[in-house]
Design a protein that fits this description.
Blueprint: E1 2-3, H1 6-15, E2 22-23, H2 29-36, E3 47-50, H3 60-67, H4 76-84, E4 90-93, H5 106-111, E5 115-118, H6 123-135, E6 145-150, H7 154-163, E7 170-174
Parallel strand pairs: 1-2, 3-4, 4-5, 6-7
Length: 188
């Protein structure tokens, strides 16, 4: 897992031993991935997954272009993925992208014969398979919940999540319990 927030990386290490983490503030991403996979055939991961989206510009160029509304999304992480993944590898994009990017390294993408897929997660497709696993305790989605707040504190929850403060990974908002309301039958 690659991130720039050490709390998030530490959380992953604690909850999922064996997952390798990389703080891109400490090491250059592509070089570090190449070091990690130096002994693998093809040198590079088979698959890379982008799950952050347009919010996170790493370069001054994309920061300026987004500020001036010359692009809506940044290609910084996508270009790192194109560079890092092995030849013939796959790129999956599930992060939030809303429009267009500039400076996507399409030449390297073509030369390396990569496959790219993206889209919103088709939750309804996986629901019948995953729900029984959650109910049986085989999958524990609660693993990523770090904050539980009442629905009335939704703005605070979104702020904590967006700012990556207080060790936030995921926030669950709970509606207040409601009292039963007696309703008169509809008249015909």
């Amino acid at each position: 897992m690659i991130d720039s927030v050490q709390d998030r990386l530490d959380f992953v290490k604690a909850k999922l031993p064996g997952v390798e983490t990389l703080n891109f503030k400490d090491k250059e991403t592509v070089s570090a991935i190449q070091e990690m996979t130096a002994n693998e055939p093809g040198r590079g991961p088979d698959v890379v997954i982008e799950a952050a989206g347009f919010h996170y510009s790493k370069s001054w160029l994309h920061t300026i272009e987004q500020t001036l509304q010359l692009e809506t999304d940044t290609a910084d992480m996508l270009n790192e993925m194109i560079t890092a993944v092995r030849k013939g590898g796959r790129i999956s994009i599930v992060g939030v992208y809303i429009g267009f990017v500039n400076h996507l390294n399409i030449g390297a993408f073509m030369e390396k014969q990569l496959t790219m897929r993206g889209g919103q997660t088709p939750c309804q497709r996986y629901w019948p398979t995953l729900l029984p696993k959650v109910q049986a305790g085989e999958l524990k989605p609660s693993l990523v919940i770090t904050h539980v707040l009442p629905l009335e504190q939704a703005p605070k929850g979104y702020q904590i999540f967006n700012d990556k403060k207080d060790g936030c990974i995921k926030v669950v908002l709970q509606p207040a319990p409601t009292e039963a309301v007696a309703m008169a039958p509809a008249s015909s």
